[in-house]
Every structure is written in C-alpha cells, then in structure tokens.
Specification:
This protein has 239 residues and is an alpha/beta fold. It folds into 2 domains: 148 residues, Rossmann fold (3-Layer(aba) Sandwich); 80 residues, SIR2/SIRT2 'Small Domain' (2-Layer Sandwich). It contains 10 helices and 9 strands. The strands form 2 sheets. Strands 3-2-1-7-8-9 form a 6-stranded parallel β-sheet, with helices on both faces. The chain has a 3-stranded antiparallel β-sheet with strand order 5-4-6. A hairpin with a 5-residue loop joins strand 4 and strand 5.
C-alpha cells in the first residue's frame, strides 16, 4: 500500500479529523513562506524580516513597517489551491472538525472552510488603534505611509507580530479540537515556531500524518510521513 492509499484509508476510517498547517499550505497559491529559498527570510532589506514584523519595530518605525508589510505580507490576488479546497470539502462532508492555521492570508476561509482557527490573525481584519473602527485589507494596500483612520488613529493589521502573544482563548480551542481528534493532519509547517508547534503534543491518537517538503522535528512521531507538496497529497484524496 503506497502513501496515497494509506492516507485515503486513514481518512475513510476517521470522523473527527483536525488539520494543522503553516506557510507551506499557501506556497502553491504563490504566497512565499518565511524560511524557504525564496521566502521572506532570503529577501534583502535593511533589517531582518523578523525585526521588521515585530511589535517594537511597528511602534518605532511604523512607516517602514507598513512598506514591508504591503510588499511582502499582502498577497490579495492569491487564490485557494488544492489543499485549501480539499479541506473545505472534507469539512462539508462531516469528516473534518477544524482547520488550525498559522497563516494570515485567509485562503482557508476563501475556499469555504467555516471552522478556521487563525492563530496568527488575518490580513483581512484591520482596526483603528484609537476608535476600533474596522478596515479591510484593500484599505491597507491602497494607503500610503502609515494608514490612518478618519479619527486620526493608526490602522493596525489584526496579525500577531513578533514579541506579541497568541490569543489564549484561541489556543485553548485549538487544544480542545486536537485532543478530541481521531486523526491529525499536519502540513506545510516547519514545527519550530512555538507555542503553535507544541500543539501536536496534545494529540494522543494513532493517525498522525505529516505532509511537508522538508524534514520536521516531529517526523519520527508520525504514523504516516509524506514528503512533498501538500496540495498534491490532499488533492488525490476522495471524499
């Protein structure tokens, strides 16, 4: 039995699947990840990307922050790929309970998934730091310099920057989903960014599937390890 057949059998035998994914899920949609050869960490900027998308840099250099953010974090023309679409299909079929994602691109929701836990927020949600008025991503993209609300406040993306904490309530919900899952599919994530990477420790089942192009620290724990693109792996699944 090959990898595709084993994955299909696991999905057929499961009824409470949870998916946990990272940047690799969206690379097939043309969105660069942070650590691949063409990812953000290979770009040439005056500061390293992890500095430019940190809370302190946002506070101290907001104009430079937004220049980088518009150029590298807003990919509004990207569309869901086979992985996003298959996960939404599995949810509609009653097989998948939740998608837990480290991505901020909103592509899971765009594909039709309804139970999406966005651990790092979303570029599609933005708010005035003074009056809390909401703005969409297009407003940020089309603004110049530091985006301002009509009240004069800075409009901040609802994304978790370096030095900021994840939402504790969202983390608790993610843990609950994983603890109750009878199958956990992990894909497109290096599993090195904590606390999100520690979520798989809460899974106690016998169907842990890892799908990734590169090795991860958790490979030895997988019941099924698939090396390659997640869109290709999930795209072959029959629902």
């Amino acid at each position: 039995m090959n990898e595709s057949e084993r994955l299909q059998r696991m999905i057929d035998e499961s009824g409470r699947i949870v998916f946990f994914g990272g940047a690799g899920v969206s690379t097939e949609s043309g969105i660069p990840d942070f650590r691949s050869v063409d990812g953000l960490y290979r770009q040439r900027y005056p500061y390293p990307p992890e500095v430019m998308i940190s809370h302190s840099f946002f506070v101290e250099h907001p104009a430079e922050f937004f220049d980088f953010y518009r150029a590298k974090m807003l990919c509004l023309d990207a569309r869901p790929n086979a992985a996003h679409q298959k996960l939404a299909e599995l949810e509609r079929a009653g097989k998948l309970c939740a998608v837990i994602t480290q991505n901020i691109d909103g592509l899971h929701t765009q594909a039709g998934s309804r139970r999406v836990l966005e651990l790092h927020g979303s570029v599609h949600r933005n708010y005035c730091m003074s009056c809390r008025k909401a703005y969409d991503a297009r407003f940020i993209l089309e603004s110049e310099g530091v985006p301002r609300c009509r009240c004069g406040g800075i409009v901040k993306p609802d994304v978790v920057l370096y030095e900021e904490s994840l939402d504790s309530g969202l983390l608790e919900r993610a843990v609950e989903y994983i603890e109750q899952a009878d199958m956990l599919i992990v894909g497109g994530t290096s599993l090195v960014v904590y606390p999100a990477a520690g979520l798989i420790d809460y899974y106690r089942g016998k169907r842990l599937v890892l799908i990734n192009r590169d090795p991860t620290p958790a490979d030895g724990r997988a019941d099924l390890l698939i090396s390659g693109n997640i869109g290709a792996a999930l795209g072959r699944v029959r629902v």
